[in-house]
Amino acid sequence: MRLIAFGDSLVAGAGDPDHLGWIGRALLGRRSITLYNLGVRRETSADIAARWRAEATPRFTDEEPMRIVFSFGANDCYPIDGKPRVAQADTLKNAQAMLTGADAHCPVLLVGPPPMADAGVSARLEVLNENLKVLAARLKVPFIDVFQPLEADGLWRAEALAWDGAHPGAGGYQRMADLVAAHPAWRAFTLID
């Protein structure tokens, strides 16, 4: 199976000294899955929407099952000049375009954004997370909510605060990976016949 992960620096695993991030940790030991981690630091949903198709197409094959994971939102909610970089309505439009476009080619999964140390950003992320959950349900795309569990997770918060307020270290990414890997949607999504 080929699994393509699109997202921001949290998908890329920024801050993880092992350079695995949550997606690499969720797939540890899964040798039959080839991971293409296409997380890019500072990217918003608009940036990801503009590039995902061109980057996914060369990785598609008829010889192996394909899967696409999307996870984004933190950079959309981060303020520039007092306003979020991407309006929430636009984030949801971008998400719908990506999810429906990718779903036409292969199974798709959406992992919601984790919390941030900044209370304002985190509040916007919490609302976005709920709206993404509703959108995914409407589109019949599996959604994994990591926001609430990580908001209450002392290790996630401590590691993010210790570095830059957004990115945890190895322990925090492991917590997120454990949440994702334990979810029934992930287990079904990564099942290989």
UniProtKB/TrEMBL annotation:
MF terms in GO: hydrolase activity, acting on ester bonds
Source organism, top-level taxon: Bacteria
Annotated SGNH hydrolase-type esterase domain residues: 5-175
InterPro entries (UniProt xref): Ester_Hydrolysis_Enzymes, SGNH_hydro, SGNH_hydro_sf
Coiled coil ranges: none
PANTHER family, sorted: THIOESTERASE 1/PROTEASE 1/LYSOPHOSPHOLIPASE L1
Protein name stated in the entry: Lysophospholipase L1-like esterase
